[in-house]
Amino acid sequence: MTTEVNLHYKLRCLDTGELLSDVDAPLDNPNATRPAFLRAEYDNKKFEPGPLEDGIYRFEQWMPIRRRLAGSSAPITYQSEGLARRLGLNRLFITFSGYWPERGCRMLTGTFKECEAYSVCARTPSGSDSVLVVASAGNTARAFAKVCSDNEIPLVIVIPEVNLPSLWIVGPLSECVRVIAAGRDSDYSDAIALAGTIASLPGFAPEGGAKNVARRDGMGTTVLSAADTIGEIPHHYFQAVGSGTGAVAAWEASLRLVQSGQFGNRKMKIRVSQNAPFAPIHRSWQQRSRALLPFDEQEARQQIATINAKVLANRKPPYSLIGGLYDALVDSDGTTNSIDNATAARAGELFLASEGVDTDPAAAVAVADLIGAVENGTVRKDDVIMLNLTGGGMDLLVKNEDVRLIPPTRIINREKSDAESVEQIMKEFF
User: Fold this and answer.
1) Does pTM top 0.90 for this prediction?
2) Is 211:38 a contact under the CB 8 Å cutoff?
């Protein structure tokens, strides 16, 4: 691995308090005694975003990266008129990550997962000879496929076979990207396990998921976009979650904004929602349990099969560890909610009618949560509200762009997912 120096940040272990170098891009601290995140600490404490034409890298001073990659677009934030009028809100701001060229956002995967992909891949040392391995329920797979294909970064995507219809790319796919589908009724957690097996093989490396500081700080650019537009830290932050990593990223970004001294000391209330009936985070938070409450595996699979927002189906979210979602909710006096398919669909229709662009099923869940908060009086009409829409504009994207489904390179069923069998399969492609 190539040694690179003069990085503009270090990594703080949230368990031991140690400061670590990021030369080798670690995912955790071997000296930690408890599961805990690393968190990036940047040399420049002042918030100084660059020009819009820099894409996601306009926020590079607060991103743990060592290079720029081609093709990025940053989240955009604007003050709502249509939806705000419908809901009686005076200061509703929408942060949109998706395809909406009219607003200046052109994420060609239609999802805010591009924010993390452009950050993670830019953190990876350019001299690395390992193949990156990413597990996904769909959105993350699209994002990494695009970034790695465009920049010739070797990649293995592992995705449940049932989620393959959500895996596509605009234009041709480079040969450097391979797709392994977890077959036989596998879900996202099975894909994560299979990806872990592949990443343990010689020549492969795990992307790291929520433990990768670049993933979190890439997604945290949504809050930086909002602060740049609004000039304030919002009172409320709404987002639908599966793992909750994006909400943790939002919380960490808000802490940096407070530390900068440029935005006061307001704590942004983290308000996350899940797609009922599969809502393990919501169930656990309602009991204020730091540990994720246990659930029946078969029942969880059945619940996941019924929800529209498949990308929210994570059975092992980073909820309990130090610096995880539980801590974000505690520190921000946050809330959770559980939204059923029909309620989310109605919210998505209202958003389209009010704002003029479609939302993906996960973003519609967040819209529904906001509507519920207005109805129950937990947000006030003059509060500064950030609605983080994590995907949308798909109708326009399909109409305007050369969208192509990505077929799997190989389907691996559970009975063939042991390390020896997987290693033999991977030797066929790398």
Assistant:
1) yes
2) yes
Q: For residue 188, name the pLDDT band (cuts at 50, 70, 90).
A: confident
pLDDT tens-place string over residues 108-164: 999 999 999 999 999 987 777 889 999 998 889 999 999 999 999 999 999 999 999
Strand partners, 270: 237
27: CB partners within 8 A, 6+ apart: 38, 206, 208, 211, 212
Domain 76-109+214-398 falls in which CATH fold? Rossmann fold (3.40.50)
The tokens for 417 are 């997912």
Q: What average pLDDT score do residues 382-405 get?
A: 97
Strands, sheet with 9-13, edge to edge from the N-terminal-most edge strand: 19-20, 9-13, 38-42
Q: What is the pLDDT of residue 382?
A: 98
Residue type (1 letter), 83: L
Query: Do the domains at 76-109+214-398 and 113-211+402-426 have one common CATH topology?
Result: yes
Evaluate whether 82 touches 355 at the Cβ level (below 8 Å): yes
pLDDT one-digit tens code per residue, 360-369: 999 999 999 9
204-206 and 131-135: which strand pairing? Answer: parallel
Query: Is the model's pLDDT at 400 over the cut of 50?
Result: yes
Q: How far is CA 74 from CA 95, 152, 178, 239, 364, in A?
A: 10, 21, 26, 18, 21
The matching CATH number, chosen from 3.30.1490.190, 3.40.50.1100, 3.40.50.300, 1.10.10.10, for 113-211+402-426 is 3.40.50.1100
Name the residue ranges covered by the structural domains of the chain. 76-109+214-398, 113-211+402-426
CA distance 175 to 153: 10
* Helices 341-355, 361-375: inter-axial angle, 10-degree rounding: 90
Q: Pick from 312, 332, 325: which is nearest to 258 by CA?
A: 332
Summarised one tens digit per residue, pLDDT across range 258-275 is 999 999 999 999 999 999
